Amino acid sequence: MDENELIKEIKEIVTKYTTAGKILARVRKETAKQVQVGASLLDVANFGENMIRKEGGEPAFPINISCNEEAAHATPTKEDTDVFGEDMVKLDIGVHIDGYIADTAITVDLSGHPELVDAAEAALEAAIQAVHAGINTAELGVIINDTITGFGYKPVANLTGHGLAQYMQHVPPTIPNIPVDSGVVLEVGQVVAIEPFATDGRGYVSEGAGTEIYNKVGNKPIRAPAARAILKEIEPFKTLPFAKRWLNSKHLDFAMLQLEKNGNISSYPVLKEETGKLVSQAEHTLMVEEDGCTVITR
Ligand code: MN
Ligand code: MN
After folding, report:
1. Distance from the CA of 226 to the center of ligand 2, in angstroms?
2. CATH code, domain carrying 222
3. CB–CB of 130/290 below 8 Å?
4. Active-site residues: which are they?
5. Which of 103, 111, 130, 251 is the most core-located residue (most Cβ within 10 A)?
C-alpha cells in the first residue's frame, strides 16, 4: 500500500468512527428522554436499538440499562415486564459501523440525587480536558478520583475506561478511575473511552445474579443442533456482545449453557456496587491528538 492509499484508508476509518459517534449522540439524547417513572425497560432498550439501525448504524452491544446499585451489564430480557421507579438509571449505548465502535453512557436520575450524576460528569469533563498525546493514563486516574471525591463521593475502583478497536470494545489502554502506580502513555490516533463511575457506597463492584449479555470467544466444534443454530445466529455480531433477547433459536437457555461450557461464548454478569448504594456513570469516546482530543460522541 502506498502512502496515499494509507492516508485514504485512515480517513475512511476516522469517518466511520465519527459517523458512529454522531448517530450515538442522537440516540443517547432520544433514548434518555424515554426513561421516566413507569416506562418499560424493554421498550426503552428496543427504542434505542431500533433507532441505531434506523440511523444507519448497528448496536455495538445491547443497550445496558443498569439501575441504582447496578453499575453495568444489565439489559432487559425478552419477556421483561420491569418498569422504572424512582431509580438512578445508567444507559450505556454503543454504535458501530463496520466494527468501528463509539461507546457512550449517560445517567438519568429519577431518584433525586443529581449531585451524584454531576460528580461522574464533572470527572469525565476534567479527564477529557487533560487528554493529549503523551499524557500518562495514571494522571487521568488522579483527575477522575480527585473530581469525584471533591463532590464527597467515591469513584468505582474496579471499573475502567478502555481502548477500542475494530470489532473489539475492550482493548488496552486501561483508563483508571483511581490513582494507580503505573499507567501507560496515550498516543496519537488511539480511540479510547473514558467512563468514570461515582458512588455513595464503598466504591467496588462485584458480579451479581443475572446474565443477559454474552459474546463469542471460541470456535471449538459442538454437535448439538440447537447450539449450532445459535452459533449461526450470532455470526453477524462477530466478537461483539449480544443479548439473549436478540436470539430466536429454539431451546435457547439450554443451548446457551452448552455453548458456554464448551467455551464458545462467555457471559457478562451484572456488576453491582458491593454495599448496594447508588452508582452514576458518564462516558464518551474520543480520539487522541497531538494537542488534545476530539470527542466523537458529543
Ligand atoms: Mn459504555
Ligand atoms: Mn466503555
Report:
1. 32
2. 1.10.10.10
3. no
4. 92, 103, 162, 170, 195, 283
5. 103
